[in-house]
Design goal:
This protein is an alpha/beta fold. The protein folds into 2 domains: 218 residues, P-loop containing nucleotide triphosphate hydrolases (Rossmann fold, 3-Layer(aba) Sandwich), CATH 3.40.50; 64 residues, Alpha-Beta Plaits (2-Layer Sandwich). The strands form 3 sheets. Strands 6-7-8-3-9-10 form a 6-stranded mixed beta sheet, with helices on both faces. A 4-stranded antiparallel beta sheet has the order 2-1-4-5. α5 packs parallel to α6. It is elongated, with a radius of gyration of 23 Å.
Length: 315
């Protein structure tokens, strides 16, 4: 059923020697989501993905896919999942089509027309018979996604699929991810260091910091739930500042380059505007300035390589 949990981890952890790369990680991914998985470099994102795909075993905890525990039901669960970890593994001297045929054979065979459908989905039909060594980096990454699509997976796990891409390649990958979600209903688990891409594509997200879950929830809900920055253009400016400083929900109000930078919850912007108008202030603009980048930096500020006791925050 739509919205049910198809991927879940409980107390998941991975230890290398004395260092914990991931610890006590509880994730929930629901059917149909584009789930953004964020964290600073070395936060444990790739380690987590390798555990999800059973490429490495966890030290603690468990993973369930479609309600099936791993690794006990590895074959059954992973037959419904496609993956692209960091970069596509391709035979450069063969054509794109031939690469997909080899992957299909390893999967035990494909439905008639499956390769053509995968090539069409990633926009490579016209170049299907060209050798992969003639492809751009972006085309190789899209061929990697085509590999992940073989077998009609219900969920695709993508680890940094835009690494090394130019702006056009990033745009094409973003559009592909959104299209796969909307048109095919595929659940997508997307790890990326490009915050703007997650902000534009993901419907929900989790942020890990030092291997520990910091926050998890809907992207819009998380960005709108806490104190944020609002830029206000108003006249007279000094009166506007006095009014805003007197409001109980305003934490800080500073003048910057002819406008006011106000720290306040987004949910209170209407009340702030009403108070300004009531005081005779002409409001020209009221612009929320919360971005995923600002939120990410707030959550991960003071990141350390040392694992601390878990302190999970949920919306």
């Amino acid at each position: 059923m739509p919205g049910d949990i198809i991927l879940q981890t409980s107390g998941l952890g991975k230890q290398y020697g004395k260092r914990w790369a991931v610890q006590n990680l509880d994730l929930q991914v629901r059917r149909g989501e584009i789930f953004g998985f964020l964290g600073p470099n070395g936060a444990g994102k790739s380690t987590t993905i390798r555990m999800l795909l059973t490429l490495i075993g966890p030290t603690t905890g468990r993973v369930e896919l479609f309600g099936l525990p791993l690794p006990e039901h590895r074959r059954e669960a992973l037959s419904r999942v496609g993956g692209l970890v960091e970069r596509a593994d391709l035979y450069l001297y063969l054509s794109g089509r031939r690469n997909l045929e080899i992957v299909g054979a390893l999967k035990g065979g494909l439905k008639r027309g499956a390769i053509d459908q995968a090539l069409e989905a990633v926009g490579l039909t016209a170049r299907a018979n060209d050798r992969v060594k003639t492809y751009s980096h972006g085309m190789k990454q899209r061929l990697g996604v085509a590999q992940a699509l073989l077998g009609d997976p219900e969920c695709i796990i993508l680890d940094e699929p835009t690494t090394g891409l130019d702006p056009q390649g990033i745009k094409e990958m973003r559009e592909l991810i959104v299209r796969l979600s909307r048109e095919r209903g595929i659940t997508i688990f997307l790890s990326s260091h490009l915050l703007s891409e997650i902000e534009q594509t993901a419907t929900s997200m989790a942020i890990i910091n030092g291997g520990i879950l910091a926050v998890q929830g809907g992207v819009r809900d998380l960005l709108n739930s806490s104190e944020n920055s609002v830029r206000i253009e108003a006249s007279p400016l000094d009166t506007a500042m006095k009014v805003l400083q007197g409001l109980p929900f305003v934490r800080r109000c500073e003048q910057r380059e002819g406008s006011l930078e106000v720290k306040m919850p987004f949910t209170e912007t209407a009340r702030a505007n009403a108070a300004l108008v009531a005081a005779g202030v002409e409001v020209a603009a009221l612009v929320p300035r919360r971005s995923l980048e600002e939120y990410f930096l707030t959550i991960t500020e003071g990141a350390s390589d040392t694992i601390r006791p878990p302190a999970v925050k949920r919306p």
